[in-house]
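Justification of computing resources. Each target in the renewal requires a structure prediction run like the one illustrated here; the chain below, 240 residues long, is used simply to show the kind of job we budget for.
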Amino acid sequence: MHPEIPDGEKVFREAYFRGLHPDPDLWIDEWADEYMRIPRDTGAPEPGQYRTERTPYAREPMRCLSPAHPCRRVVTMVASQLMKTQIALNWMGGLIHMAPSNILALLPSLSLSKRVSGRISKYDTGPLAAKLGNTPEADGDGQRYRGRGLIQITGHNNYLRCSLALFGDERLLRTPELLEQPEWAAESAAWFWSINGLNALADQDQFNTITRRINGGLNGLEDRLQLWGRARAVLCVSSS
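Resulting C-alpha cells:
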C-alpha cells in the first residue's frame, strides 16, 4: 500500500475500539474547563471558554457537586455576583452530559429562572448536542428531544432508535410527547433496559454497571440501592 494512503481497515478498527471506551469520569470543575462556554450576550467581562482558575474558590463546591462525589448536600455562603449562578450552570451542564437524570431547580425569582433557562437552552448546540445526534444549529431540538420516559430517553438519536423499536416508524421524532404518556414511558424504559443488556446485570447485582449504562456515571446510585433493598424485602428475595 502506498505510504501516503491511509489503511482504511486500520483507521476503522482504531476508531471503532476508541468508541467502545466509556467517557472519562470528570469532576464538575474539569467538565466546565473542557466544555463550558460563556456566551457573549450575557454581558460577562470574559466570555468564551470557562476557566476555574479565574475563581479558584469555586473548585471545591463543584467537586462536591460531581456525580462521583459522596457528598449529598452542598451549602455555600457567598457574596452576590461571586460564583453561585455559574456553578449551578456548570453543575447542570455536567449532569446533562455525564449523568442524565431529572433535575428540579428552585430559584428565588422569575427573572433569575428565565436567565438560567436561557443559558441552559444554549446546550441545543455544541459537543453535547452532537453527542445526542441533535443538529448543530440553535433550532430548539435540544429542548424538543429532552429526557422523557421512565428512563429519560434523550436526544434525537435515542428518540429515533426508540421510535423504530416501539412503532416501526419515526413518529417519536414528530411527537416526542408520546413518551410522557404512562404506556410509552414504561415501554421506552423496557426497550432501553433490554437493548443495553441490563437484565443480566441486575441478576448479578451489578448496580454500578447498570447505573453507568443509564446515566454515564454513578448519579443516584445510593437511592437506587435503598429502593432495591426495600423492594427485595417486600418481595422476599434473598440478598445472596
